[in-house]
# Entry
Amino acid sequence: MEGMGGGGGGLTVCRWTISFAALALTRTIFSQSFLAAAAAGGGARRPRGERGSNLRIKVKMTLEEIATGVNKKIKVRKQVSCNTCNGSGARDASSVETCGTCRGAGTVNRITQTPFGVMQTAAPCPTCGGAGQTIKAPCNVCKGDGRVFGEETIEMDLPAGVHEGIQLSMSGKGNAGAKGGPAGDLIITVEELPHDDFARNGNAIVHELFISIADAAMGAQLEVPTLDGRARIKLPPGTQSGKILRLREKGLPELQSYRKGDELIHVNVWTPKKLNDEEKRLLEKLRKCPIFNPPSKEDKSFFERVREMFT
# Structure
């Protein structure tokens, strides 16, 4: 409680006096600085027009295109800049005049009394929207909007490694802006087309390979499809149905990476549905051979094998 009386009280009063003086000085400096900044920026015009809306499209891609990336040219129907008025919305150059409200400045000044003093702010002109100009005679084609519906062919480079549902963006390729405003963005959603030979599992592709009982029992050298051609594989004797073979780095690339997935070959032993008499007699002989009887222990399922491939 020291300093509450006598000389201490004088020190307290002195501190308050200094504080009010500092506050007054701060208010003066703040008001002058703000007024100077507002005056300096008061003449800056906002760009004319309004930004166009974003446009969304779907682009179909095959697994081969996803594996390498692809350049596509897509014709898109959207709002484009009016060719008659070059997007200005005015009938001609003489149809554009200086805004009478802001006198071409694009802004109007507002003065507000605050506890810190008089504050001056610059706001966009409500008449011209900050453009500093108004249109007295609109374009006959776009009716003053500066844009019309039309078609545009857009060239796009789709990267390798994309997947179903991923969204890509192209800046400034959406709908044109009104009255010369900037265009919106083009949002591209990838639609992955089904493949005759492969199913996708992340960056890996799975191929279903059907072989005969003879090939499974004795082994064989076979050709299988890949995304960039064909490859030869060797089936070992005694290959069981459900076995998974791996072709390394024959799958899909990871997006924005050098890593690639694998091609997984799921082996299926084909069992004939119709047999003639000779084939039946042959199989009856084989049935009696102990080696053709399956073991009692259950083999792992396909999904367990796939899970082991990635663990």
About this structure: The helical segments are 7-41, 63-68, 213-218, 277-287, 302-309. The domain at 55-192 is CATH 2.60.260.20 (HSP40/DNAj peptide-binding domain).
